[in-house]
Design brief:
alpha+beta; 3 helices; globular; 8 strands; 8-stranded mixed beta sheet
Length: 181
């Protein structure tokens, strides 16, 4: 009889310990498993030059992605968004800035990572795509980037993503993007 109580007691302690470990996994900082860049980066035209500041969205659901990236956007990254598995830890990070001419694009210059404080962060830069001696069209051009960042679902998922946007002849912009669901 004493042996049975001892075994039941040890079983309860082991189960409680295991459940406690599983709960601790969810409170650990986020972990990035992979990053994929979309071949199609949507752009939104902004008419007033005063509104030409970098901006972005951190998307945590299919409905938020539909609204931000597919509705009234050209070109629309339909397949990239539809293959994003939000339940499996995928999140979408969209950043848009502006190039001074038509031969610029937005590039990742600091790969997405988790900071010591547990927040995801990345750096992007508006970069010229042609050598200086090649003439480009004189038109302020929207440039954007769309990343699928896959987080470990056994840990906490981030509710915010920080992005630094570097632009030639303009101050660096720090974006702190709250997740939209």
């Amino acid at each position: 009889m004493h042996r049975r109580r001892a075994l039941i007691g040890m079983s309860a302690v082991a189960t409680t310990t295991l459940v406690g470990c599983m709960d601790n996994e969810r409170t650990r900082p986020p972990a990035i498993q992979s990053v994929t860049r979309s071949d199609i980066a949507p752009t939104r035209r902004v008419p007033a030059e005063s509104e030409l500041q970098p901006w972005g969205r951190f998307l945590g659901s299919a409905s938020a992605a539909q609204e931000a990236l597919l509705d009234d956007v050209d070109p629309a990254p339909i397949e990239f968004v539809e293959t994003t598995d939000f339940e499996a830890g995928d999140r979408l990070l969209f950043v848009q800035a502006y190039g001074r001419q038509t031969c610029y694009r937005l590039e990742v210059v600091d790969s997405p990572r988790i900071t010591r404080t547990g927040r995801p962060v990345t750096g992007v830069a508006v970069q010229r795509t042609e050598p200086p001696e090649v003439a480009c069209g004189d038109a302020i051009t929207p440039v954007s980037i769309l990343l699928r960042v896959t987080f470990d679902v056994d840990r906490s998922l981030p509710d915010q993503f920080d992005a630094r946007v570097d632009r030639p002849e303009a101050p660096t912009t720090e974006l702190s993007l709250a997740v939209r669901v």
